[in-house]
Design goal:
With 242 residues, the chain is α/β, with parallel strands linked by helices. It has helices at 18-31, 39-45, 50-60, 67-87, 97-106, 119-128, 152-164, 182-190, 204-208, 223-231; strands spanning 5-8, 110-114, 137-139, 175-179, 194-198, 213-215. InterPro entries: Beta-PGM-like (IPR051600), HAD-like_sf (IPR036412), HAD-SF_hydro_IA (IPR006439), HAD_2 (IPR041492), HAD_sf (IPR023214), PGP-like_dom2 (IPR023198).
Length: 242
């Protein structure tokens, strides 16, 4: 077995924008005359798609959430997100992202992104950070019905890469996922992928027990050593659920 693809999460791995999302969601709830997010709801939102989170928020407040209504809310949020991003002098891209992308490319590995974020938000940030050209596949929350911790997004990324590069003959276990939340880690593991947990959102010790590798910062990740593990014939040990 060999490592062929590195799949990045988006929010919490590439960009530090959690506070922006939470603020915009609260603003929409106010506009809809609904109760603001509770602390427990905010915590539960991490790693999940906006659609799934809005659906839960509305259900908790007794509001009927049709697909049309959800789509309308997501469009409003995406527009507001673009306005907030445009106000920033510099995008809050996490340290080490560009260097890791360089390392991955220098080893002739494919690069993908799997996120529950809205596609327009991902596109806006990647273009603004001049990173879009490096991603061979992007799976957003618009592409899947089941949000993380379901594995659907990761499995779709494998499918699309095989469609684009048939000679790759990619299997999920030949992918490395980079995640920052329990929901994302579980999604990648359920897709039969190994996972790097980066402690951007949750503490190191919480991620360490359920990831194959854990780092405080992306700059700490030694990709060469990770590749060596993939090249070993022995079956990798399982790790517990977060």
């Amino acid at each position: 077995m060999s490592l062929k693809v590195v799949l990045f999460d988006f929010n919490g791995v590439i960009i530090k924008d959690e506070s922006i999302h939470l603020q915009l969601i609260d603003e929409i709830l106010i506009e809809e005359n609904l109760q603001l997010q509770k602390v427990s709801e905010r915590q539960a939102s991490l790693g999940r798609s906006d659609r799934a989170y809005f659906q839960e928020l509305l259900a908790n407040r007794g509001r009927v959430a049709t697909e049309e209504y959800l789509t309308q809310l997501l469009k409003r949020k995406a527009q507001a997100y673009a306005q907030e991003i445009e106000k920033l002098e510099k995008l809050p891209i996490y340290s080490g992202v560009e260097d890791l992308i360089y390392q991955v490319r220098s080893r002739n590995l494919k690069i993908g992104l799997v996120s529950g974020a809205i596609g327009k938000e991902i596109e806006l940030v990647l273009n603004g950070a001049k990173l879009a050209e490096y991603f061979q596949v992007i799976v957003s929350g618009d592409d899947i019905t089941n949000s993380k911790p379901k594995p659907d997004g990761y499995l779709l990324a494998v499918e699309r890469l095989n469609q684009e590069y048939p000679q790759l003959n990619l299997q999920p276990q030949e992918c490395l996922a980079i995640e920052d939340t329990p929901a994302g880690i579980q999604a990648a593991k359920r897709a039969n992928m190994q996972v790097v947990g980066v402690a951007n959102t949750y503490p190191f010790h919480m991620l360490q027990r359920c990831c194959n590798w854990t780092v405080d910062y992306l700059t700490d990740l030694e990709l060469e050593r990770v590749q060596e593990v993939y090249s070993q014939k022995e079956v990798q040990p399982t790790v517990s659920e977060c």
